[in-house]
Amino acid sequence: MLITLEGLDGSGKTTVWEALRDVYPDAVFTREPTESWYGDAVYRSMADEDADSLAELFLFTADHADHLSRVIRPALAEDDLVISDRYSDSRFAYQAASLEDSDLRRPLEFIRGIHAAFSRPPDATIYLDVDPETAAARAGATNKFERASYLARVRENYERLIDAEPHRFVRVDATQSPEDVVEMVERSVERLVREDGDDGRRG
Ligand SMILES: Nc1ncnc2c1ncn2[C@@H]1O[C@H](COP(=O)(O)OP(=O)(O)OP(=O)(O)O)[C@@H](O)[C@H]1O
Ligand SMILES: Cc1cn([C@H]2C[C@H](O)[C@@H](COP(=O)(O)O)O2)c(=O)[nH]c1=O
Q1: Which CATH number does the domain housing residue 99 bear?
Q2: How many Å lie between the centroid of ligand 1 and the Cα of residue 111?
Q3: Where is the signal peptide, in residue numbers (predicted)?
Q4: CA 134 to centroid of ligand 1, rounded, Å
Q5: What does pTM read for this prediction?
Q6: Candidates 138, 145, 158: which one to mutate for ligand 1, based on the most atoms within 8 Å of Cβ?
Q7: N or C terminus of the chain: which is more exposed, having fewer CB within 10 Å?
Q8: Residue 198: pLDDT band by 50, 70, 90 thresholds?
């Protein structure tokens, strides 16, 4: 089963991802951007204010393709629980915001279309919901995406994704204390894993 953690920068994904490691020691914990030369290329582009947004989309997508073949598909083939800190929804939400003012028509649909051809969608996604101002303040503006005005557009895209697939997403109020957020996420993951097991027995 593939569970992804999504949300704005500073929403607390890494904090809950670390907490889940203690609860699921046998699961595969992974993240995007990955720790690979593809991930390095992505970080290089993020550090460049003038990077072309379409080229940047394809760098993130190349990193995802490598992540799929090297980590995600092999782990799922072994029936492992996989928990990824960011995954394809980050591309749909962030790069669609970056490409909003480009010549590209309907960037979110375009990016989803590219992924539909090769990606493996998550079984469930925990969305850590926080307002853009809190997110930017927590994240500390360490890259060009961590600005409230940009994050507001990213958040709108996440809402569109949730509207399109309400059953895949579990929304958690990430303005609560870290302890409460972790508890909510742990309970949600426990339920998702249990329901996945029940489906397996029926299937
Ligand atoms: N619920 C919370 N309330 C207050 N502060 C929090 C909360 N969760 C995390 N933080 C703090 O916010 C900062 C960002 O947290 P974290 O790295 O977990 O977020 P993130 O979503 O992984 O961010 P990024 O996407 O930028 O890597 C850290 O300093 C963390 O301690
Ligand atoms: C996977 C992915 C990530 N991003 C952005 C979102 C964040 O600003 C950074 C990653 O930062 P982190 O602190 O190392 O998590 O990358 C993106 O724009 N598109 C993506 O697909």
Answers
A1: 3.40.50.300
A2: 27
A3: none
A4: 10
A5: 0.97
A6: 138
A7: C
A8: confident
